[in-house]
Structure to design on (1109 residues):
C-alpha cells in the first residue's frame, strides 16, 4: 500500500462522515474539507519527491492486470495536485447556513472522484470514478435550489447520463475484444486487437462519453446553463478542474491505446468545431457567466486541438493550455460571482471595484494571449505545433484558432471597455472578500508564472515527455506494483 | 550593459516614474527631463545612423527553448529617435497648462503620462527586436499600449473613444494573429525565430509557403499602418485620444507597420522576391499589389479627410493617406523610392505632431475643434498659426518644407520606374491634401474672429515651445534634408536595400539649400516692398464691409460651412462608404454565425444531438479506416 491512495480515500471517507460531524461540531466540519485538501497536497508533494519514476499501486494487493491498479506518473500527480489545489482555492462550502454539510460532502466526493480519475490506471476504475464525479456534480450544480439551477441540473443529468452509457458501451466493446481493462495492458494488446474499426468505434464512444465533462463539442450543450445557474465557485471548479480530468482520461486513451491518425483527426475536428462554436456563441452572450462558459468551451476546444498534435509538441501545448486555462478561468468565475448578471449592468463596474475590474483585464489579456503573460506562451506552443505538422487539416485548425482569438479579444474587451466607461453608474456590488482574495491568488499565480516561465517551461517539457511516453506507461506493468 | 540596455532600462524607469507620480503638478516637467535623458542615450547610439554595427542587448532570456534577442540597428535607431523625440515633446506640451486643464476637465493626467511612457517603452522594445519572437512581443506591447492611450479618454471624447478603441483592438488582434501565423510559418521553414535563419530559409521555401508568409506579414503590418482596406479604425482611434497622446500616436505609432514592411521588403524576404511572385504573369505581381494599395491609400483617405469638419479627424485621416506615400516609395524598391519612403516617416512625424498639438492648443483655448465654429484666430494666436502654417505646408508636400523632399523622391522614383498612373494618383493625393489643409488653416485661423473668441489668448509657452521645436525640424530638415538622408541611407544599408546617393541639399538633382535660398530671397524682397509702401492701419474686423454691407457679429464674413461646396458637387457622388459597408457585412456575418452557435446550445433535444454525433463519429471512423 502507498500513501498516494490517501488523496482519494480521505476525502471519500470524510464525505460520508461530514454530515454527522456537522451536527456535532459544525465549525470543525466547515474546515475539514480545506484541511483535507492541504493534507492531500502534502501527501502528493512528498510522494512526488520520493518516486521520480512512474509506478503502479495495486489496490487490495491484487496484482495488475488482474487487480485494479493506480498508475502514478508525474502527469497523474500533476493533475491530482491541481484537483486538490483548485478545490482548496475554490472551496464552495464556506457558507454558514444549513447547506454547508451537503455542499462540503459533495465537494469532497467530487475531489475524491477527480483525484481517482487522475490516478487510475484501469478503465473500469475510471468509469466508476467518472460516475461518482457525475453524481457529486449533479448535487453541486442544483445546490442553489433555484428553478434555473434545477433545469440546468436536469439537462446536465440527462446528457451526462447518456454520455455515461456511451462510455460504458465503449468499455464493454474493449473488454469484449481484449478481456482486460487495465490501460497499460490494453496498450500492449491494442496493436493486434484494437487497431481496427471495432476498436476505433470503441474509442469514439469513449471520447463522446467522457467528452461530456470535458466540454467536447457536441456533447457540451449543458455547459452554458449549468455555469450560469450554479454558484460561481462550482462553475469554476467544473470549468477549471473537472473538465481537465476528463481531458486527461481521453488523452491517455489516445496516447496509450489508440495512437492512430484517425483518432487524432476526430479529436482535432471536434476541437476545431468546439473552438468555433464556443467563441462565436460567447461573442453574443448576454451575461458574464454564459460568456465565460462559452469561452471555456472554446478554450477546451483549443486544448483538444493541442492534444491532437502527435508527439511531445502536442503535450507541451496541451499541458500549457490546461494549466493556463485552469488558473485564468477559475479566477474569472470567482469574479463573475456577483458580476454574473446582464452585461449591461457591468457598465461602469470598474468604479464599484477597480481591483476586480483590473483582475478581469489581466485575465482577459492572458486569455487572448498577450505577451509576456503565460497565455501567450501556451498559445505560441500550440501555433508552432500546428504548423510543424504541416498537414492541411492542422493548418485549417490554425486559421480557425487565429480567427477565434480575434473574436475573443473583441468580446472580452467589449466588456472591459464597458466596465471602464466613465459617467456610467453600475448597479452591481463588489465581489465578496473571499472571492476577491481567491481571484487575486489566481492572478498572483499568473503573474508569478511570467517570472518563472523558464523553470515552468522545463517542467512542462519533462511532463510532456512522460505523458507522450506510451511504452513507458505500458512498461510500468512489468515493474510490478507496490 | 550596453547602451541599448541603458536606454531600455531608462525608458522603463520613465514609465515607472510616470505611473507613480504622473498626476503630480511637477510630473510633466520631470518626465520631459527623463525623456530628454532617453534622447541623450539615443544620441550616444548615433553612430548607428552613420553606418555603425548594430548594438546588442546583454539580456537574452530563453523560454520554451526559444531566445528573446534585442538588437538595435540603423533602421531601428532612426525610428527610435523619432519616437523618443515625439514622446519628449508631447510630454513637455502636457507638462504645464494643458495638463492642468485636462485634469480640470476630469481627465486622468497620471494615466495619460503612464500610457505615453508605456508606448515609448513598447516602441523601443519593438524597434530593437533582434528576432521574430521579440518582434512579436514588442508588437503586441505596442498594440496594447496604444489601446490604453486610445480608450482612456472616455469622458473627454463624449464616450466615443471606447468604441473607437475597441474597433482598433479588434483590427490590431487580427494583425497580431497574422503576425503569429507568419512566425509559425517562419519557424516551420527555418526551425528557429532568428532573422538570419529565416533569410536563409526563404530561398528553399516552396512557392505557396513563401506567398503565405508574405501575405501573413503584410496583413499584420498593413493593418497597423491603416492601409486600405484595413484603415477604418485609425482616424477615430487617434482623433479621440487625449491631445498629446493623439499627437504621439499620429506621429509615429502606426509607422511601426512601415518599419515591419521595410524589414520584409529589405532583409527578410526582399522586394525582388516579392516582385517575382507573379499574379498575372508579365503583367501584375505582388509588388504591384502593394504599390496600388499604397496609391489608393493615398487618394481615398485624403479625400475622406477633405470632408471632415473636426480638425482632429481631418488630421487623422491625412495620417492614413500619408502612410500611402511611405509604402509607395518603399515598394518602388530603388534607392530613391525607399529613401523617400523612409524619410517621409520622420517628415510626417515632424509635421503631424505639431499640427495635432496646434489643434489641441486651439481646443485648449476655445473648447472646440469643430471647423465650422472657429475662425480668425490668427489675430489672437499668431504663433500657433505659424506652427500650423509650417505644418500644413509640410503635410501638403510643398517646398521648402521637408514633406516636399520625401514626396519628390517618391515621385521621381515612380517616373523613373515607368509608373505614370501611380504617379498621377500620388499627385491627385497631394492635390487633395492641399485643398484639405487649406480648409484646416482657413477655418481655424483666417476669416473673421467669432464673438465668443474675442478674449482668446495665445497658447502658453509650455505648449508653444514644443510645437515650435517640432516646426523648426520641419523647416531645418526641409532646407538641409541631407541631415536626415544620412540616417536614411544607413537604414537602407542595414536593410540591404540600394543606398541613396545624396548631398546635404537633397538627392536626385534636388538642392533644397538652393530652393530655400531662392524662397528666402523672394520673401525678403516681398518684405522690403511691403515696408517701403504706405503704412498700414489696423482696424477692428467689424470696421469693414463686404458687398456693400457692413459686417456685424450676426453677419459674418466667414465661409466655413460646406467649405468646398462646388467641388463636392462634382465629386460628392464618389463617396460611397464602401469600406464601412464591407466592415458592417463582416460584423453581420459574425453575428449570424454567433446566433447559429447560440442556437445550437439552446437546442432542447440535446440527447438526440448526442446520438447523432455518436453515430456520425463511429461512421466516420469506420469509413476512415475502411478507405
Amino acid at each position: 500500500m502507498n500513501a498516494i491512495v490517501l488523496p482519494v480515500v480521505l476525502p471519500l471517507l470524510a464525505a460520508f462522515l461530514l454530515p454527522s460531524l456537522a451536527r456535532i461540531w459544525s465549525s470543525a466540519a466547515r474546515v475539514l474539507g480545506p484541511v483535507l485538501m492541504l493534507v492531500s497536497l502534502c501527501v502528493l508533494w512528498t510522494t512526488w519527491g520520493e518516486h521520480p519514476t512512474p509506478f503502479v499501486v495495486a489496490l487490495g494487493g491484487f496484482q495488475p492486470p488482474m487487480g485494479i491498479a493506480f498508475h502514478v506518473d508525474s502527469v497523474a500527480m500533476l493533475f491530482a495536485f491541481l484537483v486538490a489545489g483548485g478545490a482548496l482555492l475554490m472551496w464552495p462550502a464556506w457558507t454558514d447556513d444549513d447547506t454547508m454539510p451537503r455542499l462540503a460532502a459533495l465537494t469532497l466526493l467530487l475531489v475524491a472522484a477527480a483525484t481517482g480519475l487522475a490516478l487510475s490506471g484501469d478503465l473500469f476504475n475510471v468509469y466508476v470514478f467518472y460516475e461518482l464525479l457525475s453524481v457529486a456534480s449533479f448535487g453541486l450544480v442544483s445546490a442553489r435550489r433555484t428553478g434555473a439551477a434545477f433545469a440546468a441540473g436536469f439537462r446536465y443529468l440527462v446528457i451526462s447520463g447518456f454520455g455515461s452509457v456511451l462510455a460504458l458501451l465503449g468499455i464493454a466493446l474493449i473488454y469484449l475484444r481484449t478481456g482486460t481493462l487495465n490501460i497499460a495492458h490494453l496498450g500492449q494488446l491494442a496493436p493486434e486487437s484494437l487497431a481496427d474499426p471495432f476498436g476505433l468505434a470503441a474509442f469514439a464512444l469513449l471520447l463522446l462519453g467522457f467528452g461530456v465533462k470535458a466540454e467536447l463539442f457536441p456533447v457540451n450543450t449543458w455547459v452554458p446553463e449549468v455555469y450560469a445557474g450554479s454558484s460561481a465557485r462550482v462553475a469554476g471548479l467544473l470549468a477549471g478542474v473537472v473538465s481537465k480530468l476528463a481531458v486527461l482520461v481521453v488523452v491517455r486513451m489516445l496516447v496509450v491505446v489508440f495512437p492512430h491518425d484517425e483518432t487524432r483527426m476526430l479529436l482535432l475536428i471536434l476541437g476545431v468545431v468546439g473552438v468555433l462554436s464556443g467563441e462565436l456563441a460567447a461573442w453574443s452572450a448576454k451575461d458574464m457567466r454564459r460568456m465565460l462558459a462559452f469561452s471555456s468551451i472554446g478554450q477546451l476546444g483549443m486544448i483538444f486541438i493541442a492534444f491532437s498534435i502527435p508527439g511531445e509538441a502536442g503535450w507541451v501545448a496541451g499541458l500549457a493550455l490546461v494549466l493556463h486555462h485552469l488558473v485564468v478561468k477559475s479566477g474569472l468565475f470567482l469574479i463573475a460571482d456577483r458580476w454574473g448578471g446582464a452585461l449591461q449592468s457591468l457598465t461602469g463596474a470598474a468604479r464599484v471595484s477597480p481591483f476586480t475590474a483590473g483582475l478581469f483585464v489581466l485575465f482577459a489579456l492572458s486569455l487572448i494571449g498577450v505577451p509576456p503573460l503565460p497565455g501567450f506562451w501556451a498559445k505560441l506552443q500550440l501555433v508552432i505545433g500546428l504548423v510543424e505538422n504541416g498537414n492541411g487539416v492542422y493548418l485549417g485548425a490554425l486559421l480557425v484558432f487565429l480567427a477565434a482569438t480575434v473574436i475573443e479579444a473583441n468580446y472580452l474587451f467589449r466588456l472591459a471597455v464597458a466596465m471602464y466607461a466613465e459617467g456610467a453608474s453600475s448597479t452591481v456590488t463588489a465581489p465578496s472578500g473571499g472571492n476577491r482574495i481567491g481571484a487575486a491568488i489566481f492572478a498572483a499565480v499568473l503573474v508569478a508564472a511570467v517570472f518563472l516561465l523558464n523553470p515552468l517551461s522545463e517542467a512542462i517539457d519533462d511532463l510532456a515527455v512522460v505523458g507522450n511516453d506510451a511504452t513507458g506507461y505500458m512498461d510500468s506493468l512489468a515493474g510490478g506494483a507496490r | 550593459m550596453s547602451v541599448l540596455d541603458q536606454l531600455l532600462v531608462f525608458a522603463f524607469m520613465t514609465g515607472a516614474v510616470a505611473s507613480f507620480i504622473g498626476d503630480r503638478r511637477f510630473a510633466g516637467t520631470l518626465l520631459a527631463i527623463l525623456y530628454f535623458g532617453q534622447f541623450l542615450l539615443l544620441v550616444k547610439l548615433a553612430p548607428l545612423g552613420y553606418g555603425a554595427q548594430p548594438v546588442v542587448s546583454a539580456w537574452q532570456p530563453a523560454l520554451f527553448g526559444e531566445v528573446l534577442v534585442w538588437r538595435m540597428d540603423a533602421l531601428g535607431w532612426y525610428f527610435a529617435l523619432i519616437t523618443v523625440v515625439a514622446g519628449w515633446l508631447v510630454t513637455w506640451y502636457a507638462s504645464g497648462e494643458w495638463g492642468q486643464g485636462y485634469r480640470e476637465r476630469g481627465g486622468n493626467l497620471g494615466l495619460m503620462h503612464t500610457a505615453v511612457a508605456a508606448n515609448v517603452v513598447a516602441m523601443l522594445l519593438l524597434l530593437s527586436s533582434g528576432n521574430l519572437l521579440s518582434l512579436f512581443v514588442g508588437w503586441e506591447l505596442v498594440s496594447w499600449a496604444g489601446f490604453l492611450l486610445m480608450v482612456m479618454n472616455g469622458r473627454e471624447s463624449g464616450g466615443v473613444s471606447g468604441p473607437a478603441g475597441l474597433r482598433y483592438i479588434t483590427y490590431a488582434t487580427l494583425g497580431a494573429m497574422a503576425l503569429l501565423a507568419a512566425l509559425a510559418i517562419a519557424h516551420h521553414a527555418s526551425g528557429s525565430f532568428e532573422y538570419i535563419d529565416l533569410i536563409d530559409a526563404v530561398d528553399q521555401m516552396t512557392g505557396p509557403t513563401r506567398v503565405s508568409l508574405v501575405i501573413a506579414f503584410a496583413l499584420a503590418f498593413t493593418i497597423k499602418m491603416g492601409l486600405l482596406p484595413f484603415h477604418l479604425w485609425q482616424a477615430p482611434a487617434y482623433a479621440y485620444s487625449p491631445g498629446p497622446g493623439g499627437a504621439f500616436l499620429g506621429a509615429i505609432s502606426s509607422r511601426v507597420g512601415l518599419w515591419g514592411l521595410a524589414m520584409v521588403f529589405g532583409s527578410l524576404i526582399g522586394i525582388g522576391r516579392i516582385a517575382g511572385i507573379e499574379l498575372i504573369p508579365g503583367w501584375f505581381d505582388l509588388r504591384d499589389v502593394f504599390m496600388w494599395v499604397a496609391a489608393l491609400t493615398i487618394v481615398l483617405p485624403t479625400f475622406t479627410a477633405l470632408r471632415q469638419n473636426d480638425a482632429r479627424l481631418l488630421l487623422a485621416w491625412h495620417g492614413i493617406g500619408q502612410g500611402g506615400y511611405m509604402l509607395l516609395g518603399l515598394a518602388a524598391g530603388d534607392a530613391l523610392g525607399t529613401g523617400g519612403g523612409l524619410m517621409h516617416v520622420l517628415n510626417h512625424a515632424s509635421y503631424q505632431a505639431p499640427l495635432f498639438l496646434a489643434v489641441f492648443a486651439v481646443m485648449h483655448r476655445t473648447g472646440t475643434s469643430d471647423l465650422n465654429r472657429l475662425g480668425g484666430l490668427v489675430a489672437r494666436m499668431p504663433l500657433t498659426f505659424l506652427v500650423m502654417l509650417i505644418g500644413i505646408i509640410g503635410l501638403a508636400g510643398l517646398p521648402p518644407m521637408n514633406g516636399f523632399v520625401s514626396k519628390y523622391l517618391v515621385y521621381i522614383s515612380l517616373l523613373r520606374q515607368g509608373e505614370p498612373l501611380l504617379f498621377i494618383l500620388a499627385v491627385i493625393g497631394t492635390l487633395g491634401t492641399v485643398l484639405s489643409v487649406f480648409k484646416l488653416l482657413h477655418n481655424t485661423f483666417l476669416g473673421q474672429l467669432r464673438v465668443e473668441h474675442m478674449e482668446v489668448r495665445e497658447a502658453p509657452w509650455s505648449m508653444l515651445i514644443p510645437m515650435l521645436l517640432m516646426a523648426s525640424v520641419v523647416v531645418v530638415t526641409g532646407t538641409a534634408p541631407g541631415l536626415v538622408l544620412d540616417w536614411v541611407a544607413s537604414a537602407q544599408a542595414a536593410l540591404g536595400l540600394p543606398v541613396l546617393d545624396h548631398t546635404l541639399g537633397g538627392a536626385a538633382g534636388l538642392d533644397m539649400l538652393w530652393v530655400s535660398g531662392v524662397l528666402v530671397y523672394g520673401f525678403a524682397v516681398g518684405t522690403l516692398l511691403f515696408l517701403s509702401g504706405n503704412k498700414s492701419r489696423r482696424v477692428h474686423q467689424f470696421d469693414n464691409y463686404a458687398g456693400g454691407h457692413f459686417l456685424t457679429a450676426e453677419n459674418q464674413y466667414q465661409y466655413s460651412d460646406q467649405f468646398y461646396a462646388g467641388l463636392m458637387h462634382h465629386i460628392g457622388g464618389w463617396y460611397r462608404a464602401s469600406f464601412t459597408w464591407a466592415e458592417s457585412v463582416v460584423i453581420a456575418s459574425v453575428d449570424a454565425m454567433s446566433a447559429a452557435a447560440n442556437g445550437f446550445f439552446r437546442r432542447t433535444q440535446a440527447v438526440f444531438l448526442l446520438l447523432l454525433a455518436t453515430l456520425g463519429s463511429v461512421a466516420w471512423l469506420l469509413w476512415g479506416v475502411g478507405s
Summary: Chain A is about 75% helix and 0% strand. The CA atoms of residues 384 and 390 of chain A lie 10 Å apart. Chain A touches chain B through 75 residues (CB under 8 Å).
